[in-house]
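Protein Entry — a single chain follows
Next Lines — sequence and tokenised fold
***
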Amino acid sequence: MYPGALFGCQGMGEFQNMLHAALNIGVDPVAIKETIYQATAYLGIGRTCDFLIAANGIMEQHGVRLPLAPQASTNEETRFERGLAKQVELFGPDMAKRQTDGPALRRNINRWLADNCFGDYYTRNGLNGQEREMITFCFFLAQGGCENQLRGHTAGNFGVGNGKENFTVSWSSACHISGIPAA
């Protein structure tokens, strides 16, 4: 979960150090890249592009052949439906109601969350649901000021089976990376 917190607090130098160490001990490059891609939906391309460029350079230094195999499991026709199903799985049936209830502008945001954040990213291969949900929590935690998202993703973590012990270990690790005030 370290990368999630590092992306959230923009810890590029430590990310580069940890990436070298991770590749040296055999961490799957696909999992690393998937964490960066997952971050893009929540942190924005402006905050993640440099991490992707750095990761590609470091992976090449370690002999990883790029590009890696594609991990997408949806397309333009299936991303919304599969993303909404993933939201309902994580957060309950009220997520489906958000697509039709509420102001039009909010429905646009809800659709974007379903098709982009969940349809394009949560449905990808390379990380499981528990990993994706914990990483997403760490993105928000390290940014600070995302209390509403933290509440939702705390529930999502417990919903995917990230128990109290695993959750506490990840939270306290993120505190060491982003600083306790952010966490």
Remarks:
- The two ends are 14 Å apart (CA to CA).
- The mean pLDDT is 92.
